[in-house]
Amino acid sequence: MWLPFCASVTPALDAPEFGDGLAELIAAQAHQIGADAIFTLAEFAMLVVADAADRLGLRGAGPNAALTRDKRLMRAAWARAGVPSPRFRLVSCARDLELACRELTLPLLLKSAWGAGSMGHVVVSSPDEASVVWPAAQAAMADAKAAGYRELRHRSTDADFLAEEIIAGSPRSWWPAGSGYGDYLSVEGVVADGVYHPVCITSRLPTIPPFTEVSNLAPCALPEGLQRQIESVARAAVDALGLQTCGTHTEIKLMDGNQLCLIESAGRLAGVMVPAEVEHVFGYDLVGMVVDSLLGRPADFPDRMLTDQDAVGAAASIPMIATNASGVPWARELVWDSSVPDWPALLAPGSRIETVPGLSIPDGTRIPAYQPAGGVLAWGGQFFLRSRDAGTLVQDAYAVLNGLEGALARGWHARAEQSVATP
């Protein structure tokens, strides 16, 4: 039997149920209702859910699940397997960071070992910056913790950091000049009983400083030969983690000379609207694949990784963020209202966009100012964008990022004028 089971984990952040207790609680509740599988889409709940499944003898990510959450373990596993990934050092204080700056090739990226969504990412350019950068990263993670973004399996993870060499990414040997695409992408897939099934690649626009993501786009329009090369590296990376049954989201950096380097690989499906993108473009249900695999049922995996040749239309996740596509912060503080922007004036004919309610601030809320180290905390919400093809999708994505401030300002101005004209 498969039954939906939901438990609110937020109140447990500072309660005895945190960690082992929380995994026991989830396992007990799942056992009580006779659940045959336990599933989460949440990054920070992934380990407690995997632990709960293990306790009940159910399918799950398995004992190596921590390798997809603790980036220090992930990097070590890839180093042993010879998978291309950046050199790194463990960091627990400003002195460790200063030493890492002297041992590795600058600049470095200081990042939380258990973070997600680029939260706590700070670039370090010299050893002299360590004393300033270290507290900045700590403060960013404190903000994330206060907002509820915290690993639920272990208590002290917000103090765990690593510093790694910044990958010299470049789209030049991959994308045509002027394509608008960034120098990284991800492979979406599922591991079922230890066998990896890559489903498709999703592309990106360039990040804004330091590494805040502003898009996820399907399908990937690279030539099929290049997509198969990416697939091969993703397979080696996922196989090296030794997972059992779970979704996967593997981020890869594109480099000159058609070289690749691993960024991270999560043991869960991609966030934001990626599963909806994949279903809209390819007709495959990523969530259904994972659930069927957890239940031991045959899953509807494609015979081979899908490419743009298999696509019908295009779709993207675009954040509501107070910068343009280059990372220039808005000049004005604006309040969000989904009825204000004139979307047809921004988008190509036939394109559609909608605000995702569960991932967005309510109408009447001020859009948060951009904080470079905040990652996803800088997002006010998410848009789900659909266009006729991959090229139009890229144009529409830039139009949203570069035009939202003006569209909101004009809309509010027009509404104010109408209010004055109507006694």
Summarize the structure.
32% of the residues lie in helices and 18% in strands. The protein has 423 residues and is α+β, with helices and mostly antiparallel strands.
The CATH class designation of the domain at 313-423 is: Alpha Beta
Secondary-structure element string = HHHEHEEHEEEEHEEHHEHEEH
Overall mean confidence score, pLDDT:
91
CATH architecture of the domain at 313-423: Alpha-Beta Complex
**Radius of gyration, whole Å:** 22 Å
Structural class: alpha+beta
Sequence stretches where pLDDT stays below 50 over 5 or more residues: 1-17
Largest sheet, in brief, is: 4 strands, antiparallel
CATH fold type of the domain at 313-423: Aldehyde Oxidoreductase, domain 3
N-to-C CA distance: 61 Å
Count of individual helical segments: 10
Spatial ordering of strands, largest sheet? 1-4-2-3
The percent range for strand residues is 15-25%
Fraction of residues in helix: 25-40%
Kindly state the number of beta strands.
12
Shape: globular
List the main descriptive attributes of the protein structure presented here.
423 residues, Aldehyde Oxidoreductase, domain 3, 4-stranded antiparallel beta sheet, disordered N terminus, alpha+beta, Rossmann fold, globular, Dna Ligase, domain 1, 10 helices
Task: Report what the structure shows.
The protein is an alpha+beta fold. Among the domains are: 10-65, Rossmann fold, CATH 3.40.50.20; 87-165, ATP-grasp fold, A domain (Dna Ligase, domain 1, 2-Layer Sandwich), CATH 3.30.1490.20; 313-423, Aldehyde Oxidoreductase, domain 3 (Alpha-Beta Complex), CATH 3.90.1170. The chain has ten helices and twelve strands. The chain has helices spanning 20-33, 46-56, 71-81, 94-103, 130-146, 224-241, 274-282, 286-294, 343-346, 390-421, and strands at 88-91, 108-112, 122-124, 161-165, 184-192, 195-202, 216-218, 246-255, 259-266, 314-321, 352-355, 379-387. The strands form three sheets. The protein has a four-stranded antiparallel beta sheet, with helices on both faces. A four-stranded antiparallel beta sheet has the order 6-5-8-9, sandwiched between helices. Strand 5 and strand 6 (195-202) form a beta hairpin. It is globular and about 65 Å long. The N and C termini lie far apart (61 Å).
